[in-house]
Amino acid sequence: MKKIKANSLKVNKDFLEIDLEGIKIVFSTAEMDRSFNRHNELGVVNLESIRDDFKVDSVKYLQQIHSDKAYIYNKYYKNIKDEEGDAIITVEKNVAVGVFTADCVPIIIVNEEKKVVAAVHSGWKGTFNSIVVNTINKMKEEYKINISNTKVYIGPHIRQCCYEVSEELKEKFIKNTSVEEGKLFKGRNLSMEEFILNDLRTSGIKENNIFSLDLCTHCEKSIKLYSYRSTNGIYGRLFSFVYIK
User: What UniProt keywords apply to this chain's record, in alphabetical order (predicted)?
Assistant: First the structure.
């Protein structure tokens, strides 16, 4: 896995951008206090503003429910925004597909060869139920992607330094993975990333094709991010998305 520092990325207003061959990955920040909460009017306006900011035709997302469900979006899918799930896959050009987070893990999966992309929302439930594996499997089944050249980008989320869980949940995670307890936990502080990394490696993603933005939504000081835990439930939403140019 390669760690990416925020200061090494292209910064555009309140977005961190990564340009690949014919594909752009974007992680929003809270630097300009712009929240992307689909459940209020301003949030919807901000979501729609992405079309102008990035010159895409549309912005697509799901009704997130902390599941392991992944959907495939194509231009004939009229009501994708009403579907309940936590990962969205597409091969459509100029369509931004994204997920909302505010401590959960945003994951972007790209295959440049077949031009297939996915955005995944992985909270503790999605992480526990290996939503990233389900998404990769769906991409393989539908588009026959080659795992050896598929890349994965893990965005800002609450990290082990700040994410304390119950003893009961700790025991459930330990029983559900082959990751060493000392890596997965420090005391009761969970590393969702370590669990996800194990899933990615088991799925065949190469180590040098895994990238992680080294940012904790809860305690990062160099860049402003939204965090559910740090604001006692009064929080905005980050939006992480990807599109094919």
Answer: Hydrolase, Metal-binding, Transferase, Zinc
**Domain annotation covers residue 183:** no
Q: Are 163 and 152 in contact (CB under 8 A)?
A: no
The yes-or-no verdict on residue 122 having pLDDT over 70 is yes
CATH of the domain at 35: 3.60.140.10
pTM: 0.97
Pairing of β 58-60 and β 95-101: parallel
User: Please, which residues bridge with residue 24 across strands?
Assistant: 19, 243
Per-residue pLDDT tens for 5-54? 888 888 888 999 999 999 999 999 999 999 999 999 999 999 999 999 99
- Give the number of other Cβ atoms within 10 Å of residue 119's Cβ: 30
| Domain membership flag for residue 195 | no
Per-residue pLDDT, averaged over 169-175, amounts to 97
Note down the domain range covering 22: 2-158+209-244
pLDDT of residue 233: 64
Is residue 177 included in any domain, yes or no?
no
Report how many domains make up the chain: 1
